[in-house]
Design a protein that fits this description.
Number of helices of chain A: 0
Strand content of chain B: over 45%
Distance between the termini of chain A: 40 Å
Distance between the termini of chain B: 36 Å
Shape of chain B: globular
Largest sheet of chain A: 6 strands, mixed
Oligomer: heterodimer
Largest interface: A-B, 25 and 29 residues
Number of strands of chain A: 11
Largest sheet of chain B: 7 strands, mixed
Strand content of chain A: over 45%
Structural class of chain B: mainly beta
Radius of gyration of chain B: 13 Å
């Protein structure tokens, strides 16, 4: 079983601040997912990455496979970024066996 | 737009009364997943289909069943819902077995009276 730990659990910041959310996992993986969940439930896939760094707009995700650690950064944060951000990894049985999710980071960006 | 659609968004049922949740996809993905997410918890995989092959998680209660009549549709049946089954149910798809992004529906929030 892969343990997925996220920090912080809750984060409140002011609009414009640079945000970092961290994720660590216990078992080696081939790829890691960052997901966003807004109030009301729907989940959106932000990134899937297996090495290095990916960037999409103001979002940047990095991963260090050797250290079993990934970070999600938000530059120039905005109140619409307020959501739960979830790190997830494939279950040990393989890619088709679904994901193991972290507990999420509840982010609030205040105007 | 291609997407994963869950119906209904909100479902209320009575204790013990069977209920069916629906998921459809226009992505033509091979794999479809059902996750259960209770309040303030991480989603938990209930089962998944790889094409027609059904894969049940060891700790998924027998009360939960699933059907996938074709590539596009997948159903979650709860035969006798208990109060503990109140949760958000999320459907997701991925194109294939190897590491692929998962595409989620908006979820169905199930309440039990």
């Amino acid at each position: 079983k892969n343990e997925v730990e996220q920090s912080p659990q809750n984060l409140t910041a002011q609009e414009g601040e640079f945000i970092t959310i961290n994720c660590s996992y216990s078992v080696g993986i081939s790829a890691l997912h960052w997901l966003q969940q807004h109030p009301g439930g729907g989940i959106v896939s932000l990134f899937m990455l297996s090495s290095g760094k990916k960037k999409h707009g103001r979002l940047i995700a990095t991963i260090n496979i050797q250290e079993k650690h990934s970070s999600l950064h938000i530059t120039a944060s905005h109140p619409r970024d307020s959501a739960v951000y979830i790190c997830a990894v494939p279950r040990p049985g393989g890619g088709a066996d679904g994901l193991t999710f972290g507990k999420g980071t509840h982010l609030i960006i205040q105007p | 737009d291609a997407m994963v659609i869950q119906n209904p968004r909100y479902q209320v049922t009575q204790f013990g009364k069977p209920v069916t949740l629906s998921c459809s996809q226009t992505l033509n993905h091979n794999v479809m997943y059902w996750y259960q997410q209770k309040s303030s918890q991480a989603p938990k995989l209930l089962f998944h289909y790889y094409d027609k092959d059904f894969n049940n998680e060891a700790d998924t209660p027998d009360n939960f069943q699933s059907r996938r009549p074709n590539t596009s549709f997948c159903f979650l049946d709860i035969r006798s819902p208990g109060l503990g089954d109140a949760a958000m149910y999320l459907c997701a798809t991925s194109r294939d077995r190897t590491n692929q992004p998962q595409h989620f529906g908006d979820g169905t929030r199930l309440s039990i009276l």
